[in-house]
Design goal:
With 260 residues, the chain is an alpha/beta fold. Helix content is 33%, strand content 25%.
């Protein structure tokens, strides 16, 4: 009963009923379908970008952060005066170190500190090989030193010591061979301008001072060279006088030659 004493009618209960497909107009369904497609098309590029970033992160971590693509081998090419073991030790790249993280220029510089190595290049050969290509120094002269012979290249760098004079190398006598030594540089300059005839007769180049350079030839003959200037003129004049019967040929002033 209600407060006024009358009877209360039946209570209505509301129930949520899902409308059937037929209850939604076709135009509405088409609109909703197109809306879903637009949302999917809008979200697809972001999903692709996220997937690409995730894949790149995984690949980057695998390549740069793990030993899966690490250094398994150091392949050495062109080394004769140095051993492969010496090159690997100079490279100082640990086993299984990520190949992608190897400092190629720094590794080449470390290998270049080996005395017989003039230059080196380092490259990657995937998945796990470091390739080292070595160019060794070319000997141009031998310098007598402490009962042995120091072998020098065209720059005057001493890169080898031998107990005997190596065949085919001229002898240059200087006090302290080295690329910074003026006497060494002067002696090598003289060697570089000698004609084939003079080189064929040459026994040794002696550098007693920068203006006191001489050549000793076969038959105990001497060419007084003086300093290293005008080398091509001196070589030409000395070659022309080789046929003269003289023990000493002085070309230190190539315009006024003396011999005796």
């Amino acid at each position: 009963m209600d407060p006024g004493g009358g009877r209360r009618g039946p209570v209505r209960r509301w129930q949520l009923v899902r409308a059937g497909t037929d209850a939604v107009p076709p135009s509405t369904r088409r609109f909703m379908a197109r809306a879903r497609q637009r949302r999917m098309r809008a979200a697809l590029p972001w999903a692709v970008v996220a997937g690409v970033f995730a894949l790149a992160a995984m690949v980057g971590w695998t390549v740069f952060g793990t030993g899966l693509f690490g250094v398994r081998e150091v392949q050495v090419e062109g080394a004769e005066l140095v051993s492969s073991v010496q090159v690997r030790e100079a490279a100082a790249v640990p086993d299984d170190f990520p190949l992608a993280r190897v400092d190629l220029a720094g590794t080449a510089r470390r290998i270049g500190t080996l005395a017989p190595v003039e230059r080196a290049t380092v490259t990657r050969d995937w998945p796990g090989t470091l390739v080292v290509r070595v160019v060794e120094r070319t000997p141009v002269a031998a310098v007598p030193q402490n009962g042995a012979f120091a072998v020098v290249d065209r720059s005057g760098v001493v890169f080898r010591s031998l107990p005997r004079q190596p065949d085919g190398l001229p002898v240059v006598r200087v006090g302290r061979p080295g690329p910074e030594d003026p006497g060494t540089r002067a002696g090598l300059e003289v060697l570089a301008v000698l004609t084939p005839q003079l080189r064929g007769q040459l026994v040794e180049v002696t550098v007693e001072g920068l203006a006191r350079i001489s050549l000793r030839l076969r038959g105990d003959r001497t060419v007084v060279w003086g300093d290293a200037t005008r080398g091509a003129d001196k070589a030409r004049v000395a070659t022309a006088l080789l046929s003269r019967e003289a023990d000493t040929i002085d070309v230190s002033a190539p315009d006024v030659v003396t011999f005796k």
